[in-house]
Amino acid sequence: MTQTATTEATYIGGVWEESKASAYSEIVNPATGEVIARIPLADESVVGRAVEAAAKAYPAWRRTPPQDRIQYLFRFRELLLKRIDDIARTVTLENGKTLAEAKAETQRGIENVEVACGIPTLMQGYNLEDIASGIDEIMIRQPLGVTAAITPFNFPSMIPLWFLPYAIATGNTFILKPSERVPLTAILLTQLLEEAGLPAGVMNLVVGAKPSVDALLHHPDVRAISFVGSTPVAKYIYSEGSAHGKRVQCQGGAKNYVVVMPDADLDMTAKIVSDSAFGCAGQRCLAVSVAVTVGDVKQKFTDAIVERASSIRTGNGLDKDVQMGPVITAQSKSRILQSVEKGLKEGGRVALDGRAGINGNAPHGNFIAPTILTDIDASNPLTSTEIFGPVLTVNSTNTLDDAIEVLSKSAFGNSSAIFTSSGAAARKFRYEVPTGNVGVNIGVAAPMAYFPFSGWKDSFMGVLHGQGKDAIEFYTDKKVVIERWPKEWSRKF
Ligand code: NAD
């Protein structure tokens, strides 16, 4: 067996470093089980050097006019567009999602670069003359210093771009710590920033597991940390980062409900909900995983979505005709299958059984085909815990109030959606649901780059969300200056 070569994955102060690591991560293609790369894992000393390089680059970068800073982002955007197919292929190889999904997420990431190119306007403060006679007050936004983002496996290109463009456009320097399961996309993004000519130390890359995260959390020179990942880790990072004096924003896990009203167009609803539940193999933090029908449409909706979902072609995301890829690891696959087993043991029924995956066609891939369950009791973990796989549960209630009550009990508040043709039902839903992102006849309510990604409850810890104006506020501090220039103190002209 040939040994997979080690890939350079550490970029500090403008230099790709050869590894002297004591620990490595093997990057496995989830569709084939093949090891596609071997990555050195950063320890505390590597992270320490990254912070040092970012701190060293900060004074000059902060003094670079915003108009000049964004020129690097314009060039980065052009390179991202030029290389979008390579980026998508890398995402598919290490994450498993289809090429179309990989390209779409990269496009959503690029939109954040585009928004951040507006920093000379977005970062402006405000002022008022004569707050008292002859006294003016101005508010200026200034960058924080060294900032860092810790990102998950499920959107290898988009999620780093939720943070990086805003952080550097506002004048901060930045350290990216991507998921050690999907570092190859982050390496490619970093190479493109290098090609865009970004000054050394403004962007640094370290790949690692918990020790590298802890080193960022505890380093006194890291001013702000953005995190996206599971809720237990989000809670840890929020409390540990805050305790060490950092500004922290943590986007956590999710359990997303969709309410299907009796007046919804059921075929259209089934198509959209199926895309939401099974797109990216259910590994989207906005994926619908419980559908609650209201009134007597449960069977009709179940039939329609089973028909739709059973036509989804599951397989290797690199194949042109494939519509759904594998889940990330063999462990994820067995965890998902165990959750399904438990649901069935406790009285649930299978409406569409995808547990056999793709019938032995890819014995080393982590495939589960679309799976739809009904009659799952509200006390079963399938309706309350995050499954993060291609499994949808369909339940029913008598009224919209009941449906809202059911979904309001969730510990999570990332997203919810309603399908209806009634404006009144939609308005009531929008008004009452305790989730930060809401879809009305929309399956994946993913905010555009110029709106905040607004999770609530256990899906978000912090005050300022990612993206949009919140990102500008997160990456800057406000300085308020009150000025008096008495005429009698000035030289006479
Ligand atoms: P994860 O929590 O396992 O890992 C996320 C990051 O945290 C990785 O960089 C990882 O190296 C690091 N990490 C893991 N365990 C750690 C620990 N014990 N201490 C310190 N750092 C640790 O998440 P994942 O499996 O990569 O991603 C899937 C999760 O992310 C799901 O729960 C999903 O809902 C969530 N997610 C949320 C959003 C959102 O916007 N709310 C978006 C995407 C994904």
From TrEMBL:
Keywords: NAD, Oxidoreductase
One of the protein's GO biological processes: L-valine catabolic process
InterPro entries: Ald_DH/histidinol_DH, Ald_DH_C, Ald_DH_CS_CYS, Ald_DH_N, Aldehyde_DH_dom, MeMal-semiAld_DH
EC number of the protein: 1.2.1.27
Classification via CDD domains: ALDH_F6_MMSDH
Keyword NAD: yes
One Pfam family this sequence matches: Aldedh
Protein name: methylmalonate-semialdehyde dehydrogenase (CoA acylating)
